[in-house]
Amino acid sequence: MLMIKKAIKASLLLVLLFFAGQAKSQETIMTDVSYEYLEKLVATALENYPRTKNASSRINIAESNINKAKLNWLTPVSLSYVHSPENNLNVVNPTFFSGYQVGVFLNIGSILQTPSNIKIAKEELKIAKNDIAEYNLTLSTEVKRRYFSYLQAVKTVQIASRTTIDAETNLVHMKYKFERGEVALESYNTALDRAGSSSLAKVAAEGTLLSTKASLEELLGVKLEEIK
Q: What are the backbone dihedrals phi and psi of residue 80, each rounded to the nearest 5 degrees, phi first?
């Protein structure tokens, strides 16, 4: 009966170890992705990134050029008047009419160019809008890519931290056994190397996390913590 109980306990222990190993092997960032938060990041980047602001200014300039081109319809038209007093005799430029004389002059060349100028200004506005639409799409994609890289870095740091804790715990255990003469020096050195490698991997993962965070904040224009 005692042997059966021991066998059951050993089986349960193996099952727990198996599922613990499965949990570690199934680390994923998919459950950490928040698409609602991601949309906030994209909106922040579209609002703050300098190149996007420049593109908006280009649209304003293009719209202003259209209005300016439309006002050119009035430019070719000019008015003038001549005042000839009734009792004034002008020998050099004699006139046959007295009083005020009004004249209207049209610049045909300017009139013919105005429709073309308006069309060009409208095309420039279309190009400016297409450019900003294209860049907004590119910026949105880049924000998403850097966000996913940031989540990957966060998950890597979490795994590296757990691995380091396990390695350090194992090192303490192996050191205890080594001092008692229960394990060879080679086994202790192996545990020591694993602990050192785990610590280095954790530091590298933390560096990558800081780098990906800074890369994402470059597009956002604000700290990641400021976006709720």
A: -145, 160
Give 11-48 pLDDT, tens digit per residue: 433 333 344 444 454 578 888 899 999 999 999 998 88
- Is residue 106 assigned to a domain? yes
Under 8 Å CB-to-CB from 24, ≥6 apart: which residues? 159, 162
**Inter-residue contact 152 to 29 (CB < 8 Å):** yes
Percent composition of the chain: helix, strand, coil (DSSP 3-state, to 5)? 75, 5, 15
Instruction: Give the tokens for residue 136.
Output: 């907004």
CB 128 within 8 A of CB 66: no
Residue 200 lies in a domain: yes
Residue 151 lies in a domain: yes
The model scores a pTM over 0.70: no
Contact 205, 157 (CB under 8 A): yes
In a 3-state reduction of DSSP, which class is residue 82?
Answer: strand
85: pLDDT confidence band, cut at 50, 70 and 90?
low
Tokens of 168: 């350090």
Total domains in the fold of the chain: 1
| Cα torsion through 7, 11, 12, 13, rounded to 10 | 100
CATH number, residue 181: 1.20.1600.10
- 6 occurs within a structural domain: no
